[in-house]
Predict the structure of ChrR-like cupin domain-containing protein.
Amino acid sequence: MPRPHIEFIQTQNVDWRTRPDGALEKLLSHDPLSTDATLIVRLPPGIVSGPRTAGEPAFEYFVLDGDAELDGLACARHAYGFVPQGSGSGVISSEHGATLLVFRHALDDPNTLSGRAEAIAIDTARMPWDTSTYDPKLGHLRLARKVLRLGPNDSGRTFLLTGLPHGVPKESHLPTEAHHHCEEAFMLQGEMWAPEGRMRQGAYFFRPPGIVHGPHVSETGFLQIMRSPGSNRVVNQWSDDLQPLPIGAAYAPVVPEGTPAAWLRPLEDAPAY
């Protein structure tokens, strides 16, 4: 069963739950028939978790705040990594505490196995921004990206995406778009307007293939981490019809049946995570 469409929630509204190792987590999205999931994990000071067993799924992590160590490697704010399935690694510790965004892969995904997928550890702050090859229909956002991971066999890309302030075109209407692959994002900083409302820091969405979305504009600029499961390249399929710019749109999330009502509260302010 594929993951359901979420467009979008503010993760500040999701309750923390306690894990057996003492860490806290928020489950944002998951496939109920596999281990494929996205979570926020809060590590308390002094925690040591792991090592992982060979039967645990691969995962990606991004440090939202604090500092941690993975297999003895220091991971500061905005560090990114990928730990393959079957690598026998994955000891996570934090002296002072940290908050991580975690993308957990499906246990039966052959493209995440050690030997086929490489382990990754990146200090993203030291990477240069790439401003090339963006679709001209997104030119008003003045985008730049940092590619963090390309999965084997075109299995998916993880990247940072940023847009400059004043990302509003002179036109009053723009086309919508869709993709043949999934798309997932978490807002790290800034804001973006969508037809479903104003995405603030902590906003999260997951789109299955073929979901029509947009247009999007940003008055303040933004920074988000994104994934495109099922493709190493984001392919935009644009509509012929134009839709009005969504500035001022009321919060109208698209969520699966059974989503807690508390998840759907609009935020007047956006505290971290």
User: Anything to note?
Assistant: Residues 45 and 97 are 4 Å apart (CA to CA). The mean pLDDT is 94.
